[in-house]
């Protein structure tokens, strides 16, 4: 795609402007590092464009506060106090979704993930946000906690101009087939291969 020009212009009857503004469904998958990092980078651009951001983390522990969470909390305050950028919401499964509290045992994880997806589906139908990050959402799909076919149907049928980015390893094929943008992160080398532990500012 040299200089941002598509290799093929589809005969879909849309204007260049309409085609440019088509909402994107993106999937970041693969065994390499950087899937969530890339998604949050996209969310940062969306925030700067004034879009409202909603992040849903499906696997992270409630005690694990990633650097992006703190940064986006600050950006959300900036929006509230000064009207800069877009509104921000951040929800984490490990701490219990704000709309559905579970006891947190292993037996509750599937139901908790299903609650999270149900809330996302509701918000999509209501066009609550402009940009969604479903972080590590491929795992509940892989483990059968959330139905892949239902997810794809909801995402393909979402109204308006809502963008959705999904991260995690082993994305199911039907989701990959439905996505507009698919990136596979492939590990070539990692510091942990040499026995080095994760570092603040690099891994979190």
Automatic annotation (TrEMBL):
The record's annotation in SUPFAM superfamilies points to: P-loop containing nucleoside triphosphate hydrolases
Q: Name one GO molecular function term.
A: ATP binding
Keywords, ordered alphabetically: Transferase
Tell me any Pfam family this protein matches: CobA_CobO_BtuR
Any single biological process term in GO: cobalamin biosynthetic process
Entry protein name: Cob(I)alamin adenosyltransferase
Please report the organism this UniProt entry assigns to the protein.
Answer: Mycolicibacterium anyangense
